[in-house]
TrEMBL record:
GO terms for molecular function: 2',3'-cyclic-nucleotide 3'-phosphodiesterase activity; ligase activity; RNA 2',3'-cyclic 3'-phosphodiesterase activity. This is RNA 2',3'-cyclic phosphodiesterase. It comes from Shinella granuli. The keyword Hydrolase applies. SUPFAM superfamilies: LigT-like (SSF55144).
Amino acid sequence: MPRLFVALEVPRNAAMSLSLLRGGLPGARWIDVENFHITLRFIGDIDGRTADEVVDKLDRIERPEFQLALSGLGSFGSKKPHSVFAGVTQAPEMYALQGEIERICQRLGLPADPRKFTPHVTLARLRNARIEDVAHYLSGRGNFHTAPFTVNRFVLMSSKESVGGGPYLTEEVFPLYESGGGWDGADLRDHPV
């Protein structure tokens, strides 16, 4: 069974901006552009019946679409950096969605995610990278940001057992509903043009 996780996709224009950050860091294995994503919940290896239950419950989530942007860079692993990432702007809707997914997973008997949710897009995995090199890389790119984009769905993705960084496959797509943007929901027939 492939390893499963729930994620938000990074749209092409933001992914292209991220791709411009590649290079200039010894020991970095850069993530392919098509594999950029924001993990909401890592699920791991589960049996087919549990996977079906996860899909069924995720399919019942009704939440509005929302705006996100990518902003700033950082690294994980303070004494021994193991990855560099782009940060994600704070969006209450994203945290609410992630919290609901976490509750669903726990209700289905999956163990709680031990890590605090830190939304990010992994840019590279590091092997034997020096702290000085990572600091230099980050300092030269600290003002990175993308234009805001609309998140109108979340996905269940799978990855084959590998060293990390893909390839990832989209297994299921779960739409978020349009938040309206001033539209009162009235039928068009009530408002002739």
